[in-house]
User: What shape does this take?
Amino acid sequence: MIRVATLNVWGRQGPWPSRLALIRQELADLSPDVIGLQEVWRHEGRCQAEEIAGDLGYEIAYAPASTADDGRIQGNAILTRLPIQEQHHIPLPVAGYEPRALLYVQAGPLPVYVTHLNWQPDHSAIRQEQAHFITAHMTSSPAVLLGDFNATPDSPEIKYLTKAFTDTWTATGDGTPGDTFSRENAFVSQYADEPTRRLDYIFTTAKPVRTWLTFTTPKNNIWPSDHYGLACDLNLP
Assistant: This one.
């Protein structure tokens, strides 16, 4: 059995040192074999993926997606305890908007893909194009696709992905909506005028055993991120 997880880490926004401590503690407790991270910043020689991995025994793969005016790079990362045998950074179609990327890593026996799709509410057509692009690149099976898809389960882009892959929350979650962007999280209610909904997913062609929400517990009213994470135990053929 292999445990995979995903988390949008929200860059260095908010009280990052306190958030980092919460993320690292839960990561140590959760102990996934592989975790995909989105909104991972790299700037002036410092990479959040390295800060998060620390001494927890993970290999790191990082794929830059966009660069801000101040030189800050934002991208996706994979932390894995399975050996990295191959990795690729694949730019996504974005129709002239902020660059997005797909990170592929062959982690031991498991092909792992991590992505972060366009966030704008009216960009469903672009996200659909990105979803088609991703499935065209996922030619190995079993595989897992982790990320922040910025779309709800009833959207055309997610409906398309669920035709190609198993949505592990729908298959093996606890029967609740599985919201990963929640106004119960102070970082959402304070900084975003947006409704509670599910935006983050674990898709797979393997067999999911159990899926659950992670990184949901605050300390002193500080949450690990503005998104909750997901974890899933998978059986491989």
